[in-house]
Amino acid sequence: MKKLMLWAVAFVLFISCGQQEEKSEMDGFISDLMSQMTIQEKIGQLNLITPGGGIPTGSVVSTDVESKVKAGKVGGIFGIYGPDKLRQAQQMAVEESALGIPMIFGADVIHGYKTTFPIPLGLSCSWDMELIGKTARVAATEATADGIFWNFSPMVDIARDPRWGRVAEGAGEDPYLGSEVAKAMVRGYQQDDLKRENTMMATVKHLALYGASEAGRDYNTVDMSRMRMFNEYLPPYKAGVEAGAGCVMSSFNDVDGVPASGNKWLLTDVLREKWGFNGFVVSDYTSVNEMIAHGLGDLQAVSALALKAGLDMDMVGEGFLTTLEKSLEEGKVTEADIDLACRRVLEAKYKLGLFDDPYLYFDDARPERDILTEENRQFAREAAARSFVLLKNNNQVLPLKKSGTIALIGPLANDKNNMLGTWAPTGDPQLSVPVLEGIKNVAGDEVTVSYAKGANISDDPVFAEKVNVFGTRIDIDERPPEVMLREAVNTARRADVIVAVVGEASEMSGESGSRTNLDVPENQKKLIRALAETGKPLVLVIMSGRPLTLEEENELADAILQVWHPGVEAGNAIADVLFGEYNPSGKLTMTFPRNVGQIPIYYRHRTTGRPQDGDEFQKFRSNYLDSPNSPLFPFGYGLSYTTFDYSDISLDKSKISEKETLEATVNVTNTGDHDGEEVVQLYIRDVVRSITPPVKELKRFQKIHLEAGESREVSFTLSEEDLKFYNYDLDFVAEPGDFNLFIGSGDEVKEASFVWK
Ligand code: BGC
Which of 55, 104, 108, 213 to mutate to test the pocket of ligand 1 (most atoms within 8 A of CB)? Predict the structure, then answer.
C-alpha cells in the first residue's frame, strides 16, 4: 500500500514537473519574442478584427485589413472561413510582417459548424452531458477542418427571462446544470490538447450576468446583489474556467455600475485571483467603445480603463490600437499593462501550437473529409430527438400510428429557412430537412400525408422585415390569410390526426431578438383555434428559441411537443419522435410561464415571509390577483411515451458530520409499455440558514434508460461541498442544521430529510 502511495506521489510530481518545464519553455520563448517587439507591435497583438464575413453584430466592421496585418497591427481575425482563404491571411502575417507572428482565427460556432445541432437551450434539455460534449467535439472537428481554431462558445449566461432572445444560446436557468454543460462543452472543444489539428480553443462568455438584462431587453443594465451573483449567476463561468477554457469574453452590460469590459473587480479580482484563470480575455463586439455610450469617457479613457481592468484583446473597435500608445505617453497605462495583455495573447498562440506550425489547421483535404459527413448528420438527428420535450400527451395521441391520414399544417411544417435556429452563421439552411420531408421519410407506405401552410409565421410585414435581416425567415404568402386558413381546415377535416408545426421564426430569438409578448403570433393562434374546432386529435409541434406562453394552446391541443429549433436534421428528428422511433426524454431547463407578467419566474427562487400556500389567491400573501404563481410547465418537467414510478427515498444515514458522505437511493420503475429514458433529479433545501435559502436547488441528476417493466436503483452521493453556499461575507460555507432532499422529475418528487453535523 505504502509503495503504491509513493508511486502515486512520484507520478503527480513527474506530471507537474513536466507541466512546469513546459511553462518555463513557453515563458522563455515569449520573453525572447517580446524583447524584439516594438510597443506598436505589442499593441497590434491586442487587436481583433473582422472583415465583415459571418454575422456582423455591430455597425462597425474592420477596414484596411491587409495593410494592418502586414504592419503587425492585428492579433487575430474572425469571420473568414476555409483553409485556402485563412492560409493566405496567415501568410500575410507570417511571411510579410516584420516579426512573422501568426494570427488566431475565430468564429461563433455556437451549435455545430456546418452540421447544425439544435440551439443550445434545446440541447441542454437533453440533460445528457456526453451528448452535449460530443456536439462540441464534432463542431471542433468540422470548424478546424475549415481553418477555424478559436471558438466564441460556450455561452453560459444563466437566463431566467424568456423575453431576452439570447436565452436560445445558453443552457437555461439553473447554475448547477449550467455548470455541467459549460464543462462538457469546454472539454468537447478543447479535449486535452489544444495543439491537435481537430481541437479548438473555447471562449466562456459573456462574463458576466448578461442573461440578467433588465426587462429582458438585450444589452440592457444589470444590477444584482453579490450574493445572487456568486450563488446563482457566476457558477457556470467558473466551471468553464476550471475546465480549462483558454479564453473568456467580457459582456456588454454593466456589473455593479461598471461595464464588464472595464470592470477590474470582475476581470481581475474574481476571474484571475479568485478563480485562477490563466488564459486571455477578449471583449465582446465593440464593447470597449460602447463604454463611451455607457458614460465612462472618450475612446482613450475607456480603452485605458479596459486594459487596466484586465481585458487583453479588443474586438473590432480598435480603441486599443488607436489610443493605447497615447495613454502610455501620458502615463495613463504602463508598458507593463500592455506587456501583460500581449503576453497572454501570445501564450494562447503558443498553446495552440501556432509557433510550431502556423498552418497546422489549413489542410485542403479536410473540409471534404470531415465536414457534414453522413455520420455527423446522423448524430445531429439523434441529438435533436433528444432535445425535444413532450409537454402534453392526452389519450396517448402520440406516438402516431403508421397508418391513416395525417394533416400536416403550419407555417413551419414545410420550411427550411428556420430549422437551424439563431446563431448558425456557418450552417446552410438549404441543407436542412423540413418536417414534411422528415415525416414522409419515416411514416412508411401506409400513411397519407396532406399538407397545408395554414398561416404565415406573422402577417405583419414590418415585423417580418425586422426578423429577416439575415435572409428570409418570415415569408408572407401571396394568398390572403383567410384562404390559407380555409385550405388548412379542409385538409384537417379529411384527416385522422392533425400535426400543426407552429411557433417562432429562428431570428425571433437570439441576439437583439427580445420580445415583450411571448404568445404564438396571433395569426397562428387563429389557425390553432380553427384546427381545434374540427374536433380531430390535434398535435402541436412548437418551434421556438425560448419558452413561449402556451396557456391557450395547452387547453386546445391534445399533445404538445416542444422542439426548439432542431438543426439541420430537424424534420427527420421530429418524425422519429412523432412516430415513436425515439421515445422523448427531454426535460425543461427553463420554466415556462403562464403569462409574461410572471417573468422572471424560475424554480430556484427564495421564499418570502408570506409565501402562498397552494395556487389559490390569498389576501396579504405573495401572489397575484389575476394569475396563479405556478408556472405552466416547471423546470425539470417533460413527459415520455412511458411512465416512471419512484419508490420512497432511502438514506444511508439520517445525520452526517464533516467528512462523511450521504447516499440517497431510489428505485425507479418503467411502468408503461415503451422503453424509455428518465432524468432522475436530486434537489436539496437548506431549511435554516443565515441568508434566505432557495425553496430547492438541483444538486445531481442521472439520465437512465429503462426497458418497459424494468426497475433500477439510482444512488447519489452528497458531501459537505454540496451543502455549501456563498454567505453574506461571500465565504463559501455549509451551515449545520436540517436539510430536505427531493428526488424525482420536475415538481413530482419524493422527499426525505437529514441533518448535517
Ligand atoms: C455577440 C457575441 C459574439 C460576437 C462576435 C457579439 O455581438 O454578443 O456573442 O461572439 O458578437 O460575433
Answer: 108
Residue 252 above 80 pLDDT?
yes
**Nearest one of 263, 271, 257, 266 to 288, comparing CA atoms:** 263
Given 161, 284, 415, 558, which residue is catalytic?
284
Strands 47-49 and 314-315: parallel
* CA–CA dist 268, 249 (Å, integer): 13
Query: Which atom of ligand 1 is nearest the CA belonging to 169?
Result: 9
Tell me whether residue 681 is exposed, middle or buried, using C-beta atoms within 10 angstroms of its C-beta: 0 to 12, 13 to 18, 19 or more: buried
E strands, 504-656, in order:
538-543, 559-562, 644-646, 650-651, 655-656
- pLDDT level of residue 9 (50, 70, 90 thresholds): low
Beta carbons within 8 Å of 17's beta carbon, 6+ residues apart: none
Q: Please tell me the predicted confidence (pLDDT) of residue 1.
A: 47
For residue 234, report the distance from its CA to the centre of ligand 1, in Å.
Answer: 19
Considering only CA atoms, give the Rg of the chain. 27
pTM for this entry? 0.96
Q: Which three cell numbers stand for residue 652?
A: 444511508
User: Which grid coordinates are listed for 480?
Assistant: 390572403
pLDDT of residue 47: 98
- Here the cell at position 45 is 497583438
Q: Say if CB 241 and CB 204 are below 8 A apart.
A: yes
* 729 classed as catalytic: no
The one-character DSSP state at 633 is: B
Residue 63 predicted with pLDDT over 80: no
* Amino acid found at 174: D
Residue 662 C-alpha to ligand 1 middle, in angstroms? Answer: 43
CA distance 553 to 520: 9
453-485: pLDDT as tens digits: 999 999 999 999 999 999 999 999 999 999 999
Q: Could you check whether the bond before residue 294 is cis, i.e. omega within 30 degrees of 0?
A: no
User: For ligand 1, is residue 57 a contact (CB within 6 Å)?
Assistant: yes
- Distance of alpha carbon 603 from alpha carbon 171, whole angstroms: 15
Strands (E), 36-161: 47-49, 76-78, 104-107, 150-151
Please say if the pLDDT value at position 593 is more than 60: yes
Ligand 1 centroid to residue 53 C-alpha, Å: 13
Nearest residue (by CA) to ligand 1, atom 2, is 284
Residue 56 confidence (pLDDT): 56
Residues with Cβ within 8 Å of residue 703, at least 6 apart in sequence:
126, 127, 128, 585, 677, 678, 679, 680
Q: What are phi and psi of 599, to 5 degrees?
A: -80, 140
Residue 59 confidence class, pLDDT cut points 50, 70, 90 = low
Give CB contacts under 8 A, 24+ apart, made by 333-340: 333/304, 333/307, 333/308, 335/39, 337/307, 337/308, 338/39, 338/42, 338/43, 338/46, 338/307, 339/34, 339/42, 340/312
Instruction: Write out pLDDT tens, residues 115-135.
Output: 999 999 999 999 999 999 999
pLDDT band for 22, please (50, 70, 90 cuts): confident
Task: Share the mean pLDDT of the chain.
Answer: 96
Ligand 1 touching residue 108 (CB < 6 A): yes
SS (H, E, C) 178-247: HHHHHHHHHHHHHCCCCCCCCCCECEEEEECCHHHCHHHCCCCCCCCCHHHHHHHHCHHHHHHHHCCCCE
Rounded to 5°, angle at Cα 725 from 721 and 729: 130
Q: Is residue 150 lining ligand 1, measured as CB closer than 6 Å?
A: no
SS3 state at 537: coil
Amino acid 18: pLDDT: 74
Distance 56 CA to ligand 1 centre (A): 8
Three-class SS state of 299: helix
Round to the nearest angstrom and report the end-to-end CA distance of the chain: 31
DSSP 165: G
Any atom of ligand 1 within 6 Å of the Cβ of 468: no
